Amino acid sequence: MWDYTDKVKEHFLNPRNVGEIENADAVGEVGSLACGDALKLFIKLDENKERIVEAKFQTFGCGSAIASSSALTEMIKGKTLDEALGVTNKEIADFLGGLPEEKMHCSVMGQEALEVAIAKYRGGPVPSHDHGHEHEQEGEIVCKCFGLTDGFLKKVISQNRLHTAEQVTHFTKAGGACGGCIPKIKELIAEVLGEQQKQEPKKPERLTNLRKMQLIQEVLENEVRPLLWADGGDLELIDIAGNAVQIAFRKACAGCASSGYTSRFVEQKLRELVADDITVEEVQG
Fold first, then answer.
1. Rounded to two decimals, what is the model's pTM?
2. Which fold has domain 139-200?
3. Is 35 a residue of the active site?
């Protein structure tokens, strides 16, 4: 049995905004019954066609797919289309208090449906990740079983900082059927990691205390917490005193036998991206 948060269970048992919207301004459909997951998202805009006033969904899938779709419709209400496009699959999972990594593809499917709906409404090219639907494919098909392109997979790998083929399968299903594309997925991971390393800003030689604190917060927010979310955990920054950083683990990470290893991982990341002499201490906050 998967370890679901109470919020995931609540959105599965009492999903919000189920159904369709007549005369919807935008509709995004991703997945297919052949893949085992499908989602259709309906969006209604206000009179000025600026903000989303209503969002509904129909889905065929597991409890995580229902909960992710329900969460997404709640999250995008009141947003402009550009603001809605800024919603990431990580934010959908975080809204639910985290999803098991094996179910992260459900949050990715929600983000996909939103992108497809808005692209179709705006009359632009439709993103090419919608699992076998008849849209122009951008890039080369990597996973023939689920019709996923290299462009889509690279985007998910980059946005979620994925490092293994198994993670890519959990987030997209790619490689989860015949497994024939696993070598190509590993090549894409290496390619994305290479590009990210080139783009990583080099550590400044000397940091003011204020800048050091800002960098520590940025690294925790962008590099560390998303990895913990994927396992249903989280951390909170408690204090920064000079080079000493105090953190407390939350959710699945709290009291976990491996949290000592995790705090070492946090320290390693901070030393790599902020300053070589940073120490991380885990506290019970």
1. 0.61
2. Arc Repressor Mutant, subunit A (1.10.10)
3. yes
